[in-house]
Amino acid sequence: MDAVDSERLQRVEAIFRKAPFLENLGVKFLGCGPGWCESGLQVQNYHKQQNRLVHAGVLATLADHTAGAAAGTLIAPGEIVLTVEFKINLLRPGKGQSLRARAQVLKPGRRLSVVESEVFAKDGEQESLVAKATVTLAVLADFKEDAG
Amino acid sequence: MDAVDSERLQRVEAIFRKAPFLENLGVKFLGCGPGWCESGLQVQNYHKQQNRLVHAGVLATLADHTAGAAAGTLIAPGEIVLTVEFKINLLRPGKGQSLRARAQVLKPGRRLSVVESEVFAKDGEQESLVAKATVTLAVLADFKEDAG
Amino acid sequence: MDAVDSERLQRVEAIFRKAPFLENLGVKFLGCGPGWCESGLQVQNYHKQQNRLVHAGVLATLADHTAGAAAGTLIAPGEIVLTVEFKINLLRPGKGQSLRARAQVLKPGRRLSVVESEVFAKDGEQESLVAKATVTLAVLADFKEDAG
Amino acid sequence: MDAVDSERLQRVEAIFRKAPFLENLGVKFLGCGPGWCESGLQVQNYHKQQNRLVHAGVLATLADHTAGAAAGTLIAPGEIVLTVEFKINLLRPGKGQSLRARAQVLKPGRRLSVVESEVFAKDGEQESLVAKATVTLAVLADFKEDAG
Predict the structure, then answer these.
(1) C6-147: CATH superfamily
(2) Model confidence pTM above 0.80
(3) Distance in Å, alpha carbon of B6 to nearest chain A alpha carbon
(4) Pick from A125, C59, D36, D102: CA 20 to 30 A from residue A25's CA?
(5) Domain residue spans of chain B
(6) Reported ipTM
(7) In b/e form, how buried is each residue of C120-143, taking b as 16+ CB within 10 angstroms?
(8) CATH code at D6-141
């Protein structure tokens, strides 16, 4: 079934809302289900390289964070995920008015999850794949949970 | 000799100064020589994850951008470098007051350069390696150079 | 159209037939079309780790080589592809009687191609994804072509 | 101190001796110490690509396996390491009479170890770096140890 319970949905939404760096970039949570998550942002000048294209660091941030949220849809309460490593290929110039990332868990696990993220740029009516990442995340008990 | 000529130094400095996303993050150019570059930033709240640690996207941005600058110390006037792909391992929690990235060209090339970047976090007097990246960059003729 | 002309088909088949290391591993070409290729092997004891599982090096070889062949379906006569780098995630233990790799070009290019390879292990009737790789390849003129 | 106890040395040597795929490739254990390992092979025709160069899969196997052995120098009795993922950059053509891999643990851990491997090819008197890999390994209890 392509839905997550409301407790989990709130937890995933919070991964975006409570991260100051994501707020700085203007990233919005777009939706999630079991094993996937989507997010996006409106491209602003401060997202760019010297050459007017979106900086690879913005694409990497979207890809990594959305991957973490996708993995987060499959973990138990009291668990967290942390990125161990990721690899990203920059496939086309990042130009357009908005970006959208879709992350899909390739292999969930009790200790490690592997997630793939695709980042699309929308330029006018045209959306194209600009980056693809593979993200390995550790699943951990959140010892600091009570400390909030 | 561990120095670059002044034309090249200005070109590398400009890679940091003219990139709006780097200005947004507060990244400062710290120095460069043939095949290497260093940059850094003072950690602010807006660099962080929900868990108070520096976001992996910030570490990735520093690692990638500084790698591009290191590769840029070895190219000819009229050439540019573009990141093809990178992989980053997050080795320790990104905590501290400042970050420093040091990028070193592992293999220069006419078409492709491979660069390694290490990102260190300084927490009080202690500096520790928090991330390491390998970055593959394409060396290209900058067709738009006259258009500035 | 999901077919390649016969000249190209022969060229891709030769990528498997003429590589001594692939012959050593017993890799068979299974098929190709524009932008994809499949290969496989019957698992033998000499493919294994000390723990009786297929060695990651065998999975990596299949993934890389089949990716090269997939990229090879899209290049012009007189061009060759060379692996620049790849990343592979080992998702499940490599156990079973046979392996199959399917490679699909994610982004073709005049200078660089990015290909994804999935490696499946068949254990009895069950086939499962055991590894996934992303491979970056350079497209080059084959200067040595006349030398055969 | 740059030495490992004899129990550990034997365990690391066995990682090479007992792996049929490594025997197939003719890989020899060359030495190890706390956090590092070296191995090598004499290049034969069956290690090669169609173009007479050493196949990337051979380089990847050496890099990965030697990384596992390096991580293995730091684990406790009853633990094993398994490769989670690796990324390898192929820096120069793999030509020469012999290969040598040197793996060094970048970040040891109780659950995960990150290791870097450099592969060198020796052509006459000249040794050059032909590949560099970053390998992430899981540290696990070896439940099958008594079945050994």
Answers:
(1) Hotdog Thioesterase (3.10.129.10)
(2) yes
(3) 20
(4) A125
(5) 6-141
(6) 0.94
(7) bbbeeeeeeebbbbbbbbbbeeee
(8) 3.10.129.10
